[in-house]
From TrEMBL:
Source organism: candidate division WOR-1 bacterium RIFOXYB2_FULL_36_35
Keywords (A to Z) from UniProt: Transferase
Extent of the signal sequence: none
Positions of the Pyruvate carboxyltransferase domain: 4-275
Keyword DNA-binding among record annotations: no
GO biological process: carboxylic acid metabolic process
GO MF, one annotated term: acyltransferase activity, acyl groups converted into alkyl on transfer
UniProt protein name: Homocitrate synthase
Amino acid sequence: MPKVYLIDVTNRDGVQTSRIGLAKLEKTIINMYLDEMGVFQSEFGFPFTHHETNYLNANLELVETGALSTLRLEGWARGIVKDVEISFKLVPKIKHLNLSISTSPLMWELKFAGKIADNEIIKSMTDAVDKAYALGAETVAVNAEDASRSDLDFLVKFGKAGKEHGAKRLRYCDTLGADSPNSIYERTKYLAESIKMDIELHCHNDLGMAVACSVEGARGIIEAGQDAYINTTINGVGERAGNADLLATILALKYAKGLGEKKLLPENIKLNKIWAFAKYASYAFGIPIPINQVGVGNNAFAHESGIHADGALKNRRNYELYDFEELGRGDPELVDSGRSITVGEYSGIKGFRNVYGKLEVEFKDDAEASKILELVRYANVHTQKPLTREELIFIAKHPDQAKKIMTVTP
């Protein structure tokens, strides 16, 4: 039975959004949350980009040590040999790549001034795939940018060429959010049937339908007998109007009519961390969670009108499709009501020990405490905001990787 897999692209598409960004430590904490949730893969960055190098290598070390126990880390590069060569030079242990190239005639004309032909597109892509495997890749996916405005017959040709060279998936990019749920269902089902290849869905939210298109595309792929891979981001961040929201996609797969009954949601997905994850991402990105955000907005389980409040109090199923406890909401949060000691770039050892004591983290001696304090000071400069509980614990548990993650050398 074909399956659905989730590939989160917050650390690639999310961070390239205009006006926002993440420190490398914050990107790492996002990977830690994705791992805890049971997400299949994180597109964790750009391996051909020098300022990402230490962060990428340190996160691959976290995989080797088991700190990231189930999450697969995959890098994004352009579908050209040069990018692949640089990627393996800078990040030699990378095993999974997604190689991207434009497949729509419109982009060939507007981006490349009509100076590139369809056969050149395919050759560039297949040469890059061959090079990736030659340098040690375990899996390569081929990414059809602007697939929703590309000719279907060319996408079949593109996908088959990738498959012949060992590509594991074709990523169908609705780059401008131009598809409807109906059109993407029909197009991806046709591609899956024609190429007999797993299809990955990358949907943008320009028309407000990224989640709807993602799940309907997945349904078409599954019905065609292939596995479907859905790209998501936490809180729906992404270029322009964003990408398919991770939580909304999971809930749609689990509860939407016509989808929930098919049991498409991966069995290992755990939702009890999503509330904390969404709040962390909101803090890290500096983007407030909208009041009506699916599952995690302040009004997601709020009732005011008389009929609704009465119905919800009698039985929550009257006006709530799923339980807030399932998302990790409802647990009491500790709030200091008096003196508050924080830790930052100018902290001393006594205040530092006080903060870590509240986190129930102990140090074997003063030398270890001083070492972690120094890293915490750097982390505060690195993120340019007060450190969170998750960040403080990560630094104490993985000081060597934390140091590497925060090291950016021009």
